[in-house]
Amino acid sequence: MIKFIYNLLQNILGYDKHHPEKSGEERPSPGYWISDFDCTTKALSFKGNNLICMSISGTNSMDSVIDKGHRLIVERDFDRNNLIEGDMIVYLAIGKKICHQISKIEEDETGKKYTCWGINNHIPDPYIIRNENIYGVVVAILYTKGQTQ
Q: Is the Cβ–Cβ distance between 87 and 102 less than 8 Å?
């Protein structure tokens, strides 16, 4: 029964990381969130409305893109109507901040709802994510060896 449900989800969502013939397919990528930045050989600066720097804990859900100790630059003040499939967001669920990629955006009578997915997970997140649950959108990833907070 579990295998049947797993296969059904893969067919519905079009995702099966265990079949290499599907590699190379176009998938949604994050949108363009930084309009102005400065990059030199000794410094990097971003301009945003309310940028924060966050550390990542090691749950493995976003391996091979982000891992424990990496830093995320997250924009807190942005128009949620501009989110697209492929954007990485930080959202609040079960008393934690979770960073996953948006795989589907739908709208119902109460507004937008987002399906997110840890790119290293086999199934989407079980939470109904609404605009009010979104903490911020990831605008940059810094591959550091910093300690998690």
A: yes
The end-to-end CA distance of the chain, in Å, is 40
- Element holding 10 (H helix, E strand): helix 2-13
Q: Which two tokens stand for residue 63?
A: 């391996």
pTM recorded for the entire structure: 0.75
* Per-residue pLDDT reduced to its tens digit, 64-102: 888 888 889 999 999 999 999 999 999 999 999 999 999
The tokens describing 144, both together, are 């550091």
What are the chain's domains? 28-142 (2.10.109.10)
Q: Provide the edge-to-edge strand list for the sheet that holds 111-117.
A: 51-55, 71-75, 134-142, 88-93, 96-108, 111-117
Strand partners, 38: 45
Residues contacting 117, CB < 8 A, separation 6+:
100, 101, 103, 123, 124, 125
Q: Nearest 5 degrees, angle CA 60-CA 64-CA 67?
A: 50
